[in-house]
Amino acid sequence: MDKRLTVALVAHDNMKHDLAEWVAWNWEKLLSHRLVCTGTTGRIVAETLMERRSKDAANSRFDITMLKSGPLGGDQQLGAMIANGDIDMLIFFWDPMSAQPHDVDVKALLRVATLYNVPTAINRSSADFLISSPLMAHEEYTPVLKDYTSYIERSLK
Question: Rounded distance, CA 41 to CA 47, Å?
């Protein structure tokens, strides 16, 4: 692995099992990167990685940062990290069938990820495509950020 990315992992309650399965399937790739998770998702990701690590590679370590639960501000913490340039990729298994008490925070998180051009997966298929991309492991890639100077200047007038 030529570079380490910071990968954010988030899942709504009804999608945590799906994310845990995805992490179990991709654990070797994920161990090469720094992980940032919200709330309970972080505990589930850590348990999944510990289980895989103990079965297959006892010496492998993982780097995981746990944020608050999404409804308790974790989505906003993650959004701030994205705005500061600290997140390289967002994997967010969101539940399209259930209203969330913090839907506005979820929308804000997805908006800021889009604003800062952070590669974002919102389901297992898109997460598979992102993690298997050659850009993930071997090639230098810097997302192009849109210049919002004119927007800022216009709003200050």
Answer: 10
